[in-house]
Design a protein that fits this description.
Two copies of one chain form a homodimer.
Chain A (H helix, E strand, L loop, with lengths): L11 E6 L28 H9 L8 E6 L3 H7 L8 E4 L5 H13 L6 E6 L3 E2 L2 H17 L3 E6 L10 E9 L2 E8 L4 H10 L2 E11 H11 L1 H12 L3 H11 L8 H6 L5 E5 L4 E2 L4 H4 L11 E3 L3 E5 L5 E4 L3 E5 L4 E6 L2 E6 L6 H10 L7
Helix pairs in contact in A: 3-6, 3-7, 6-7, 7-8
């Protein structure tokens, strides 16, 4: 599809954020192989699906994948069609603001100004045509306005795990002003947002010009802005990379939401036409899994035989799981690790991983 | 200790029954490695402990282990100190009556008449001195009386998984007549037995002269008696073994309890001085396992980390089992097989194994 429809003036780059390691799918996701690299649903890994969608928006040469040293090889293996120089490993993880500053700088090494589309690497997106349509609208807007544009999702429930956008008046066809960028709310507040009607979920998908982002960083995160400006001034690329390698750790560890989006006044939102899900837990994953006649959800390759077992989520890498009299449980086996929990407590998996770390059981993280 | 104290006249042989494959400890016990070969409790396998106790009663040369072809090698490995010719593999499994008939015949190949002590191979026995004392009393009785002598256990609960002995008057010091040999009762009947005071559990431990047993077989199981008599008449040992190999399948498939003990009138019982347990399920095993501070029982080598987890029975061969919010569950992993069930349903493990067989999943049996 390329970017011909988006902007006559500016090339379109897609930046996929594939660093970081969530723990909510532990033990299927591990420190060495986080969620984005797994086939949690469907036939391809979540990252591979994200890259496939990115290539509906731009060419492989303009698709950048931001990750960490630890994951460089696995990314190359999963998306061999992306040029190796586009797989950028951050020297250390400093959260999303420095990561996207670095991405903007890497794009500007190639072209003075560009449209930069930011995609998280671990989302489920159903209607890809609608995805492209929405992104084209946002990219068009960003090409002609010095805005930080985001994609908003119509809330289907009072989720407390997402940030919200308080939306104002229309600024164009399918584009709205964002009055306020709101952090993850309490449940009463989330309920209020959902019933309010003018709130959208923050999808974590952003669209802006590299110049606009770097300008916002200078304004709202001056320390980071100064670091980026210093690096950009080094003309010799290998010197620049060496300095970056050395100094990246000095960047403030802060997310793009906290660091920029909540402070900026030039924020616009394009409501999504597509179905979106960040699939943040075993329970959330359930709806994408095949079911047996007792409403048990089965992921991965293992076999399940149940007596009087229903509404369980079962993911075993190999072998057999035999259950008697179980209901509403999550059962996950990966290698020599086994997790068993009631489905309504799947959010505590994170706590379990913390407990294992506190016990010094690194081999199981 | 030898048999000097037991009988001046008759040598003492101990026959350990180590064939058959229970399924109640599946998947830790498997078709290829049933309960008696596992270290379910303590440091030694259950068979090894049984043989150790047998050698408090007789010499290795007079200790016979009855098993099946499938288990011949594993028995040799576990008890290398028992002469190989004393490990006797039944041609096929025909239940305990033919097995003990064969054992009696094998003993009579070596000596005309002997005291034969029969020990199941999968029991837990705590006080070994008391065990020896009780067995010596029974062997002494059997040496001087043509009785089928059994060891009775004082019931601690109305168990429906055991047979009961309805005991009559004393026939000697610590020896009583058995009025009736009763099959596994219903719960109301079991309660009646326990409150009655004159009922004991049938331990499955028997003591008799080989001549007395073979006489009882001729009387109560004439078909089996005739087969045994025919084989005994063949003077050439290799011809006898060949005929046995050929004809053993013709023996009636029946237990010693059904086939002999329930019919015989010459039954005596010596109440046990020792603690006895046939440890017939995961729940029954629990009391022999170490506990953590939340009353979880831990068997085998794996590691358990729980959040809000209590009173579970956990046996994992290796690796980690992480549990959140579990109570009163049995969790067993052995190789690539995992079993999860509420503890009060552990008797249904047998049903699970039957289901797997019906599904053709032989690799998991």
């Amino acid at each position: 599809m390329g970017d011909a429809n988006i902007s006559q003036h500016l090339p379109v780059y897609v930046v996929i954020m594939a660093g970081g390691a969530g723990t909510r799918f532990w033990p299927q996701s591990r420190l060495a192989k986080p969620k984005q690299f797994l086939n949690l649903w469907g036939e391809e890994s979540i990252l591979a699906a994200t890259v496939r969608r990115a290539l509906l928006l731009t060419s492989p040469e303009r698709c950048l994948i931001m990750t960490e040293e630890l994951y460089g090889d696995i990314v190359k293996e999963i998306v061999p069609h992306i040029p190796a120089e586009n797989i950028i490993c951050e020297p250390v993880n400093r959260d999303t603001a420095p990561c996207l500053g670095l991405a903007a700088m890497k794009i500007q090494e190639r072209c003075e100004n560009a449209i930069m589309i930011v995609l998280p690497s671990d989302h489920y997106i159903e209607d890809e045509e609608a995805f492209v349509r929405t992104l084209q609208r946002a990219a068009n807007w960003a090409a002609h306005h010095p805005d930080l544009t985001t994609i908003g999702i119509k809330p289907s429930a009072p989720q407390t795990a997402y940030g919200y956008l308080d939306c104002g008046k229309a600024r164009g066809k399918g584009v709205y002003e964002v009055k306020k960028f709101l952090e993850k709310p309490s449940l009463p507040l989330a309920k209020q947002f959902v019933s309010g009607g003018n709130y959208l979920w923050n999808s974590g998908i952003f669209i802006w010009q590299t110049n606009v982002l770097l300008g916002a960083m200078k304004e709202h995160l001056p320390e980071l802005g100064a670091l980026l400006a210093n690096w950009q001034q080094i003309e010799n690329k290998s010197q620049r990379d060496a300095m970056l390698q050395l100094e990246y750790v000095l960047a403030p560890k802060i997310s793009i939401d906290y660091g920029i989006m909540e402070k900026a006044i030039n924020v616009a939102v394009v409501p999504a036409d597509f179905c979106w899900d960040d699939v943040g837990s075993w329970q959330a994953l359930e709806k994408y899994l095949p079911k047996d006649e007792k409403a048990n959800s089965l992921a991965d390759n293992g076999r399940h035989v149940g007596i009087d077992t229903k509404h369980c989520i079962i993911s075993v890498d190999t072998g057999l799981v035999a259950t008697i009299g179980l209901e509403d449980m999550v059962i996950v086996r990966q290698g020599d690790i086994l997790l068993i929990a009631p489905r309504e407590r799947d959010q505590e998996v994170k706590k379990m991983v913390q407990k294992l770390a506190a016990l010094g059981l690194e081999e199981y993280l």
